[in-house]
Design goal:
Oligomer: heterodimer
Largest sheet of chain B: 5 strands, mixed, barrel
Low-confidence stretches of chain B: 98-103, 112-131
Number of helices of chain A: 1
Distance between the termini of chain A: 21 Å
Strand order of the largest sheet of chain A: 1-2-3-5-4
Shape of chain B: globular
Low-confidence stretches of chain A: none
Structural class of chain B: mainly beta
Radius of gyration of chain A: 13 Å
Strand order of the largest sheet of chain B: 1-3-4-6-5
Number of strands of chain A: 6
Number of helices of chain B: 2
Mean pLDDT of chain A: 91
Helix content of chain B: under 10%
Order of helices and strands of chain B: EEEEEHEH
Largest interface: A-B, 36 and 37 residues
Amino acid sequence: MLLGRVVGRLWASRQAGGLNGRKLLLVRPERAGGGETARLVVAVDGLGAGPGDRVIVAHGSRVRDLTVGAEVADKDVIIGIVDGHQVTAP
Amino acid sequence: MILGRVVGEIWATRRDARLGGAKLLVIRPHGIYEPAFAGRHLVATDDVHAGVGDEVIVCLGAPARASAGGNDTPVDAAVLGVVDRLDFEAARLAAPGAGPGIRRPFTVDLSGTGESAGQAGAAGLGGEARR
């Protein structure tokens, strides 16, 4: 999994069937020592996360099957919304 | 499996129900892995009561799910062990063809004596690994 911040929401009027109606969020993975990476992950959300939230994103088809369903065409899924975290990385 | 150090902890009450009460740790994988992990960290569940500062073994993928409380847990990384001692020959690991993912000399000192605090800092550990 990785820790990231939701930086936006994604809408698309023409979607493949597997994405239809799914809430898609843009997540920027964070650096362990603070700050954010330049990467963007498009993750499916079933928990009600929104822009500004820190989230935990898990990756993989099995994770996807267990959380949002096997029919969804995305392998990055938000599995937790962070209340607090403490990183003491040098 | 990979080697890393626990650098933090995460609290999340709004989580997928299948996660249960699993403890979530922030792990910094050692800098020997290539490609590097996004943000140079990963989040893993913990069964072995690891704490911040511990050197740990982290399992990625399907076996992590089995360890984290059954195959129905939506995780992709789990801490499987806390390292007490690690012996290996840095020179052999650094040799060409030494193994997947190893790209430079690497030493870890868990004894606290600082005797083998070598090139680990250059490998992205932010200092030698030490308990």
